[in-house]
Amino acid sequence: MSLLRKGNDFFTEVALGNVGGHSLVHKFGSGNVGTTLVPVATALVYRTPIAPVSLEFVSSSASDALNSTGAFEITFIGLDANWAEQTVVMAAHATNGTTAVAITGTWLRLYRWYVSQSGAYATQTVGSHVGTLTARVAGAGETWSQISILPFPMGQSEIGIYTIPLGKTAYLLSKDILVDGTKEANVVLFQRPLANDVTTPFTGALRVIEHEVGISKSYSKTYVSPRGPYVGPCDIGFMASIATGNSEISVEFELLLVDT
User: Fold this and answer.
1) Of 175, 176, 206, 216, which has the most beta carbons under 10 Å away?
2) Blockwise average pLDDT, block size 10, the chain, 260 residues
3) Total number of domains constituting the chain
C-alpha cells in the first residue's frame, strides 16, 4: 500500500501494523494560556536544545515512590543524541517521590511520558499518582514538562508538539482545537525542519505553516490530501495565545509516519 491509497481502510491497516514502514502518531496537548504566544502543553514549554541534555524527574508528593500509593514507574519517549526515538522506563524513588531520579540516557526532545505502574488501583476519585510530576534538567534545572494533578491526576503528559525522528517523514492528517468558554484564541501551527542543523547559519528556520485567528470554542479540520511532507528531524506543533485574560486550550493532531 502507499499514501496514494488514502482512506479509512488504509489507516486501519497502518494502525494494526499491517503496512510496512508506516505508523500513526496521535498527539494532544492542553494548557492554561495567556496573552503571550506559548507552546500548548501543561507546563507551557517545549524544550529544543541543540545538544543532548541529561534529565531527571521528581514529584511534589512523597507518595510517588516505590513504597507508597502513587507512581511506581514512569515511561519516557523522545529523541536521543542521534535524533532517533528512544523509550526509557524508570522506577520511582525507593522511599520519597520528592527526591529526584535521574532519567537514563541523554535527550534532545521529550514529547511523551506517562505513569506506567502505580501503587494505587485508580478509580474515578483516586489517580495513579499523587503529586505533580516534573521532568527537568538534571540538578534541579529548567522544567521540560509536567503531568498535572488538576483537575485530576492525569497520568500522562499533554504536549501538543512532536518531533519527527531522523529517518521518518510525516504527513499531517487532521487537527482539532478547543478553546474554553467565550475567549478568542490565536493558534499557530509551526514547523522547524532540519532540526539537526545546529550550527550557524541555521537552515532549519522556525516558520508558521497554519494560522487560525479568533478561534472560539472549537475548530476541526481533516485534510482532503495529507499536508506535508515534513522530513525528520523536524519539530511540528502548536503555540497559542488568548486575546485577553487566560483560557484553557487543547489541541489534537494526527500524523502518518513513513520510513525514509
Assistant:
1) 175
2) 58 93 97 97 97 98 96 98 98 97 98 98 97 98 97 97 98 95 91 96 94 90 93 98 93 97
3) 2
Expressed as residue numbers, the domain containing 180 is 8-40+160-259
Smallest CA-to-CA distance from 184 within 219, 236, 151, 209 is with 219
Together in a domain, 70 and 35: no
What is the SS3 assignment for 10?
Answer: helix
pLDDT at site 2: 46
Phi, psi of 123 (to 5 degrees): -135, -170
Whether 169 and 100 share a structural domain:
no
Amino acid at 27: K
Write the pLDDT tens digit of every residue in 3-19: 445 556 899 999 999 99
CA distance 82 to 98: 31
Backbone angles phi, psi at 187, to 5 degrees: -120, 125
Give the separation between CA 18 and CA 42, rounded to whole angstroms.
34
Among 147, 177, 202, the domain-final residue is 147
Given 105, 124, 147, which residue is the final one in a domain? 147
pLDDT tens digits for range 215-240: 888 899 999 899 999 999 999 999 99
End-to-end CA distance of the chain: 15
